[in-house]
Structure prediction request, 168 residues.
Amino acid sequence: MTRSRDRDGRGRARNARPRDAAGRPLPHGAPGVERVPEDLALSPAETVTEAQRLLDSGRPFHAHEVLEGAWKDADDDTRELWRALAQLAVGLTHAQRGNARGAVALLRRGAEGVRLWRVLDVAVPAGLDLDGLVAHADALADDVERDGTCAVTSARLAPRLRVTRPGV
Prediction:
């Protein structure tokens, strides 16, 4: 017997199952980590701050959910940027879970999305370090492709999202 999909009051698909810190679904009723609310609406600056907090906590899947929310809420020239950043976070999630093939694919797709967005010559929101993120994603994808996920350390799962100034 298959279980019907969780739905909200408007009939949209939702996943009410708890998740572990790596974002893997757990059985209904199992204890999991705090979830990102599906209706979370943050400013670009708040989005980056929360995504960084989650990355720093070893939770790239949950950072992806925050970035995905910004992507779905964006109705301006930043929409595709948020999508690419969410893909980078999914790539980090695959790396954390030991899925080298998925990590390489999503890290490269996200980095390419950021590169394509840059040609729009639109102001970069929330102090994002797009050059640093692309370089990080490319280097991690290269290393995982060559060495597998043994190349992945917790520090490599938490790239700096914002430009950092010396001494800060």
User: Anything to note?
Assistant: Residues 10 and 119 are 38 Å apart (CA to CA). Residues 44-157 form a domain with the Hyaluronidase domain-like fold (CATH 1.10.3450).
